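Subject: complex prediction, re-run

Hi both,

The earlier run crashed halfway through, so I resubmitted it with identical inputs.
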Amino acid sequence: MFVRFRLRATLTFSSDLAGDAEEALIGLVDEANRVTFRRGVPAGTPDDMVGRITGWEVCGPSLVLTIESGPYTRAHDAIFRFKKQAMITLGRLRIGLRGISVETFTLTLEGVKPGSFHPEKIPFITDVEWEGETLHLTLTLSPADLEERVPDRIVRLIEEKLKAADYGGKAEHWELIFESRERTHPFTGDPTAEMEKRGWIKHALWRGQWIYGPQSVQLIRALETIVIEEVIGPLGFSEMIFPKLVPWEVWKRSGHAKGVYPEIYYVCTPKTRDPAYWEEVADHFKVTGEVPIEKIRERIDGPIGGLCYAQCPSFWPFIQGSTLADDCLPIRVFDRSGTSHRYESGGIHGIERVDEFHRIEILWLGTPEQTVAIADQLHEAYHRIFEEVLGLQWRCARVTPWFMAQEGMVDSSPDSCGCGARVGTTDYEALLPYSGSWLEFQNVSINGDKYPTGFGVKVQSKAECWSGCSGIGLERWTAAFLAQKGLDQEHWPARVAELTGEPKDLFRIL
Ligand code: ATP
Ligand code: ZN
Ligand code: MG
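This time it finished cleanly. Structure:
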């Protein structure tokens, strides 16, 4: 894709631009095109790639400029460089700048397949015209928008959309790292169905939500204990409690605001907590037995954010804007204080893919070397659990979500420590004998400087600050374990059976 920018703008001055002023402008325009706009541009770049004033006219105190550019000294940068020069030169003639207005701004993209994305809904785009593989976009922008480089952000957004379209169905790159030996499985049923049959769990009243009876919780807590005994304890992670209601401010910094919208559960607040304001709603329910959703919608503000989606973003405000002393690194913490919620839409299945789930999130940060070393220790500890403690048939794979690859978050360029190439996610998957498919039941991610940069966290030494996280999905662990071992403890590894204890059947339903 090749990009061209064309800007028509008016600079209005304090007096008519005649005589000396007009003479000065001739020199200014020439200087801008030959020198000012060429600053920082690689030598030999063709003229039509670089910002240049292609037309100008004086009308009383106003100077109407047309600036065109390719990718270098883009029209919206060029105008401010010119403005600076003009203020100095005309200032000497006691002429001051009164204001700038943007008349038109157009973006021309060449080499774009018609219909490959929909520019109509992108902010600031007010007119769209396709001409074969050339796309003309009219943007309505203020001078402040130009200064904020909104056109650059729009170009980046379009590039992202085109890459996403290119990527099509391939959601992520998947590369096997390890696969355990095959095992024979004493059970080949669907664990959710079997648990329901035995009264271990029951579907709750919301979609993708379960009520876990004592028997299933005994097993979930046993698995949690194994994580504590084998991973969290030996590797020195300390427990914290992260908030589970996440305001936009957090997701703006964590990057989730770039795309989490289709999967979040939104949170709203009442416009007021005055009972009189809500009386009509309560009365409606009392009389009709129905909750009046529309009346509620009128009385709430927000959404102010959403329910926890990934656990770690909510940790970062704890150290936002700080510099961490070298001697406290690496920081190793974890959270298991509450539920995560995702609107999984058609994808929900059993306890494997639910809208409300429980996860232990392990989080660490330090220098790149420390961050990578902890990820390696975690891999070893998990390996031991799945092989020796749980006896699972499992595998792990490097996955790179396409958005990560294209955000340049996966850096394969050689660096001194070789850490750059380690940024990314490893998924752990278990075989589900009943379906023959593999279930991702946890992951380990090295997130590079993404979170420290987003939340302004630095380390004392000159080293970069990096972080990592690992999400242990308890429903997924339970599903993976039961799918392979079944619900009868005689087939369970000793440690799991011991920690779980006799299943407690509290309820006798008549
Ligand atoms: P999937 O591809 O299965 O949707 P994901 O890539 O969205 O998973 P992550 O965002 O990496 O999952 O979340 C980390 C962990 O959280 C997963 O490995 C899993 O254990 C758990 N998890 C995520 N979504 C769900 C869900 N809907 N139900 C249960 N556990 C989940
Ligand atoms: Zn995380
Ligand atoms: Mg998912």
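Residues 368-389 form the longest helix (22 residues).

- K.
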